Amino acid sequence: MFVICKKELGQFLGSLTGYLAIIIFLLLSSLFLFVFPDTNLFDYGYATMDTFFELAPWILLLLIPAITMRSFAEEFKTGTYEILLTRPLTSWQIIGGKYTASLVIVTIAIIPTLVYVFTVNSLSTGGIDSGGIAGAYIGLIFLAAVFTAIGICCSSFTSNAVVAFLSSAFVCFILYNGFTAISSIPSLQGGPDYYIEMMGIQFHYRNISRGVVDSRDILYFLSVIVLFLFITGKRLTTR
């Protein structure tokens, strides 16, 4: 698994793909937090990181599929996946290596945003809620881990990287916001709306973003990650 992870990281960092993904994420989040009207913290009149944690999932929803779309699709297209199978590696080691490498790239993109915390804290007269910020970052990492698992899974179903990108972005969107949107249908209010919303990623991400790290939310994220990696393994086995 380490060999595959090292190979994937080398490909990311050896080309513009990895650096471009990191730069785009930091640039967009900075513009939304400090520049764009209606979203920058100066319009709020008080220093807060809420805008960043609300918008970051939507940026990651497009960024992560762009990182993972070539994971298996490119291997299938070029025929190098068959070469991987001749090595003393199991399917799960290949999946684990590619998943870990993609998640490392996403984490590298998120880490520099800690600068925003110090910036916002310096602008605040009474300081910021460090516990809430820490919980929000934990939620963001878990969210990125789920999106990465979905992206890897979608990439294993096609040899076309563009198709992998579009399908993973669509699945991420449905799982993140789809259940919340369905639960807001008036006919479902006061009935199953709460349980429908619980099935979506946004519900659990919002809980952790409040600074309350609940084991049920952690279990939900881990279950979704395992589910999509399991589907990926089954797909590669049938292939």
Task: Please give a quick description of this structure.
This protein has 239 residues and is mainly alpha-helical.
Most strands sheet: none
- Which radius of gyration do the C-alpha atoms yield? 19 Å
Structural class: mainly alpha
How many individual domains?
1
Sheet-strand content, in percent, reads: under 5%
Number of helices: 13
Low-confidence stretches: none
Number of strands: 0
Write the element-wise H/E pattern from the N-terminal end onward: HHHHHHHHHHHHH
In helices, the fraction of residues equals over 70%
Shape: globular
Compute the separation of the termini in Å. 20 Å
Mean pLDDT, nearest integer?
Answer: 84
Task: Write up this protein.
- The chain has 239 residues and is mostly helical.
- It has one domain.
- It has 13 helices and no strands.
- Helix 4 runs parallel beside helix 9 and helix 7 crosses helix 9.
- The protein is globular, with a radius of gyration of 19 Å.
Topology:
Blueprint: H1 2-13, H2 16-35, H3 41-44, H4 50-68, H5 73-78, H6 80-85, H7 91-110, H8 114-123, H9 130-155, H10 161-183, H11 193-198, H12 201-209, H13 215-238
Helix pairs in contact: 1-7, 2-4, 2-7, 4-9, 4-10, 7-9, 9-10, 9-12, 9-13, 12-13
